[in-house]
Amino acid sequence: MKRRDFIKTGIVGTAALGFTPTALLKSQDCPLTQNDILGPYWTENHPNRTLLANADEPGTRIFISGTVKANDCETPIENAIVDVWHANDNGCYTIFMECDSGNSDDDPYNLRGQMITNENGEYAFETIWPGYYAGRPKHFHYKITTPNGLELVTQCYFEGDAQIDSQWEEDHQGLIIPLDESGSNLYGVFDIVMDEELIQVGTQNEKAHLLEKPILYPAYPNPFNSSTQIKFNVSRQGHMSIGVYDISGKWITSLMEKHISPGAHKLNWNGNDMLGKPVSAGLYLVILKFGAHTISKKISLLK
Ligand SMILES: [Fe+2]
Fold first, then answer.
1. Which residues are in the CB-under-5-Å shell of ion ligand 1?
2. Looking at the chain, which terminus has fewer C-beta neighbours within 10 angstroms, N or C?
């Protein structure tokens, strides 16, 4: 299997490469993945993809995979959003700074991407190994959002980095991963333990109720100008109602009113009201109603 295919087909390929996720945190105590600074280079709306660096991006190719787990260190969290962003080979963030190299395809989201964990809580991506800047160890920035809305901002560092001293190691436990070298590529596993409430709540019924909750992902792009895509997921069939409202609660238009099957769905809103007339620029709410659940997300229309 080509390495690119391995990443595209997800994490299943890791076993084929003889590369199994580390059995992290087997001990009784189960440390949560600690947070770390967001830094100045975060952006919204990273594209959904597992290949963050195009083929011409200078640097050593690196393949990272991992599992997002609940706070028992076992239960995988499906449908978590994993955002990753990082510097180029020269330690330069190509979409914020003037960089001497990198981003040869003028990608506005170069070295950035968003992945959704699969039913085993797994994610994976391919990119290049970031360079140093400002005396910091090499690192990937992460922002993880669970379907319940729990957010963790953190970073992933690498064992043996010359910029990591014992104090840094002490302060960043659980964030420094080993890398395996194979051919000219690097491979690493970064598992993430979230302080997820889901497994802490009472009865099986309550858990089932929570699991039944649909997932409404942030619209993309947002803000938008001509059209924005809205993705959502349901774990059972049922009647789905999705509408757009202005922030005063006035109904603008309906995007969906129908019985749907379990799984991932998507639709677009082109910024028109129910009469097909373009609405004015501003903030709107997408409101999803499914069974007993109502979920809303803000969306911003620019003109
Ligand atoms: Fe950074």
1. 39
2. C
Q: pLDDT, tens digit, for every residue of 180-221?
A: 999 999 999 999 999 886 544 444 555 555 567 889 988 999
**The two structure tokens encoding residue 89:** 């080979």
Report the separation in Å between the CA atom of 172 and the middle of ligand 1, taken as the mean of its atom positions.
Answer: 15
Instruction: Let me know if residue 88 belongs to a domain.
Output: yes
pTM of the model: 0.61
pLDDT in tens, 89-147: 999 999 889 999 999 889 999 999 999 999 999 999 999 999 999 999 999 999 999 98
Eight-class DSSP state of 175: S
Q: How far away, in angstroms, is 171 Cα from ligand 1 center? A: 17
Q: Final residue of a domain: which of 161, 179, 200? A: 200
Domain count, the chain: 2
- If you measure from the C-alpha of residue 63 to the centroid of ligand 1, how many angstroms do you get, rounded to a whole number? 18
Ligand 1 center to residue 139 CA distance, Å? 6
Query: Which CATH number goes with the domain that contains 128?
Result: 2.60.130.10
DSSP letters for 25-81: T-SSS-PPPPP----TT--S---B-SB-S-TT--S-EEEEEEEEE-TTS-SB-TT-E
Same domain, 123 and 41: yes
Cα(152) to centroid(ligand 1), Å: 16
